[in-house]
Amino acid sequence: xxxxxxxxxxxxxxxxxxxxxxxxxxxxxxxxxxxxxxxxxxxxxxxxxxxxxxxxxxxxxxxxxxxxxxxxxxxxxxxxxxxxxxxxxxxxxxxxxxxxxxxxxxxxxxxxxxxxxxxxxxxxxxxxxxxxxxxxxxxxxxxxxxxxxxxxxxxxxxxxxxxxxxxxxxxxxxxxxxxxxxxxxxxxxxxxxxxxxxxxxxxxxxxxxxxxxxxxxxxxxxxxxxxxxxxxxxxxxxxxxxxxxxxxxxxxxxxxxxxxxx
Length: 262
Fold this sequence. Notes:
Elements: E1 13-17, H1 22-33, E2 37-42, H2 45-57, E3 65-69, H3 75-89, E4 94-97, H4 113-140, E5 146-151, H5 164-183, E6 189-197, E7 211-212, E8 218-219, H6 227-238, E9 247-251
Parallel strand pairs: 1-2, 1-4, 2-3, 4-5, 5-6, 6-9
Antiparallel strand pairs: 7-8
Helix pairs in contact: 1-2, 1-6, 3-4, 4-5
C-alpha cells in the first residue's frame, strides 16, 4: 500500500510494542476489537501470533492484525517494524510504547552495569527509538499527525525497593513524554503517558502472596483486572488530536503505597 492509498484504509492504524503478553496483548486486542488496524510488535513471534489468533477468535476480522517480530533495543529492527507498517497500511495514527522489563531486584551496589543497561535499553531507549520512527511517519503523512502513548509506571513517581534501574528508566520516560508532547505540537502529534499500578498480569502474579514494601515488610498486594488499563488506553487513543491526556494514573484501589503512607 502506498501513501496515496491511505484513504482506503478501513480504520486507524496503531503499533503496540510488547504485544505478545500482559498489558501489551490486552491493549492490542482491545484496539483490534474497536476497529483499529494493529501491528503487534515484540521479540517472540509465537506469542504475537497467539495474540492475533485470540483476537480472531473473539471476532476480529482477518487481516486487521499485523505480526511483526521486533527488538525495540535495535535501531535497525525498529526501523523495519515501522517500515512494515508503512508498506502495509500507508500511515500511522497511534503508537503504544508498552515494551518493558523490571530487571533484577537488587541494591544499587549489587546491580551490574549489564543489568542496568538491559533495563534502560528496553524501557527508555526502546521507547525513544519507537517514538522516533513514529514521529517521523506522523510528521510526514497526509493527513499529518497522530498520538503516542508511553507506558510509564507508578515507579515514575514512587519507587519500589531494590528497583534503581527500573525507577530511573520510568522517570526518564516521563521526561521523554513531555518532550515529545512539546515537540509534536507543530505537527499535530500528541503524546501522553499512562502510569499503571498492579494490573493483573504474569508480572504481578506473585503480589497476592506478598511483595517487598518500603518499610522492609512483605505484604500481599491487590491487583486490578487488566481491562481497566485497556479502557484507559482506548479513552486516550480515542480523543481528537486537539485534546490530549498528558498523564493518567490507573491503579488497584487499595494498593498499600503511592497514595499516603502505606
